[in-house]
Amino acid sequence: MSVTTPKGFAAAGVAAGIKASGNTDLAVVLNRGPRQAAAGVFTRNRVQAAPVKWSRQAVEDGELAAVVLNSGGANACTGAEGFSDSARMAAETAAALQVPTDNVAVCSTGLIGIRLPMAAVASGIAAACGALSAEGGADAARAIMTTDTVPKQAGIGRDGWSIGGMAKGAGMLAPGLATMLVVITTDADVPATELDTALREACRLSFDRADSDGCMSTNDTVIVMASGASGETPGTEEFTAALTGVCQDLARQLIADAEGASHEIAIEVTGAASEEDAEVVGREIARSNLFKCAVFGNDPNWGRVLSAIGVTDAEFDPDRIDVAFNGVQVCIGGQIGQDRALVDLTGRSVHVLVNLNAGDQGATILTNDLTYDYVKENAEYSS
Fold first, then answer.
1. Which of 117, 130, 198, 310 could serve as a FRET partner for 274 with CA atoms 20 to 30 Å apart?
2. Residue 248 predicted with pLDDT over 60
3. Is 19 annotated as a binding residue?
């Protein structure tokens, strides 16, 4: 599935000449309506790229007709000229599509601190707008890749309506989004206010819990657009759950492609006093370089898990913590458990289960994947 799977959307990806490699590097996604509802979530980094500043303004009224995206240059830390370049990208796209300029969002990804080659960008926009089609989703997903090794797409179909999405990102993946660009489309008839609420919840349970290297980007953008072309209006809970599923699928694909990664670790925290405590614990474990090094070396060093938990302000009793690696209970009640030699960490997938309140299963708060982190030579990731 792709961003053009839902009805009412067209997309294209072209080689504009931004990348020296000659690979595709510019994409456009168009919402043909009848509804043009939209919502966006952006990086929490205080240093924000020009396209982020532009797109925040563009989506503020809850409407977008299109998104134009480029790889090969982040247009970040480029000053007033960079903002003008983002505005020009929106204007060129709007003129080609005959839509209002302030209804076009802009996304850029690549190196920070360089101006975009605007002549190439402008010609690429013209080419992409001329090539828009309902089959162009895959081309658009390839055009936004930077150090990604594979394009990332996901989707879900429901009774009469669907959601499709694409993402890019392979490094600087940390809570607070990541160095990611994500465009999600749906043909469900959902107003902008509900889109915004659903997107924020979906990001909270997916991209905000993905971590590859603890670094937060300047360009992170997640945009969702609703065309209403299906004529179906799903319930709020149903739509939010479906959107969350698509975002979690894309988040896992980002982690699987993280630069230098050798393992994908899912950290599951139960027995916490609150979801906040569970998230704090999961994130601290994922951020521990000692823990990452251990997993990279195929060592189920549960002591490093406990030491990470111990520096948090979460509520727990050190003598009631259980830790399991891939189903082997290596720590029971804060002490030695099963033989760690029974744990096999040679595969790519690793599951770490932490119970902060062993013996009181009723206290389980969180069972979904928490934080991803990545393994570069001697580092790695967790979910």
1. 198
2. yes
3. no
298 assigned ligand-binding residue: no
Three-state secondary structure string covering the chain: CCCCCCCCEEEEEECCCCCCCCCCCEEEEEECCCCCEEEEEECCCCCCCHHHHHHHHHHCCCECCEEEEEECECCCCCHHHHHHHHHHHHHHHHHHHCCCHHHEEEEEECCCCCCCCHHHHHHHHHHHHHCCECCCHHHHHHHCCCCCCCCEEEEEECCCCEEEEEEECCCCECCCCECCEEEEEECCCCCHHHHHHHHHHHHHCCHHHCECCCCCCCCCEEEEEECCCCCCCCCHHHHHHHHHHHHHHHHHHHHHCCCCCCCEEEEEEECCCCHHHHHHHHHHHHHCHHHHHHHHCCCCCHHHHHHHHHCCCCCCCHHHCEEEECCEEEEECCEECCCHHHCCCCCCEEEEEEECCCCCHHHCCCCCCCCCCCCCCCCCCEC
Q: What is the mean pLDDT of residues 24-30?
A: 97
Which numeric CATH code is attached to 264-380?
Answer: 3.10.20.340
Please indicate if the annotation marks 146 as binding a ligand: yes
What residues does CATH 3.10.20.340 cover in the chain? Answer: 264-380
Q: What is the set of active-site residues?
A: 179
Which tops the pLDDT comparison, 286 or 24? Answer: 24
Residue 259 marked ligand-binding: yes
Which architecture, in CATH terms, is 9-256? 4-Layer Sandwich (3.60)
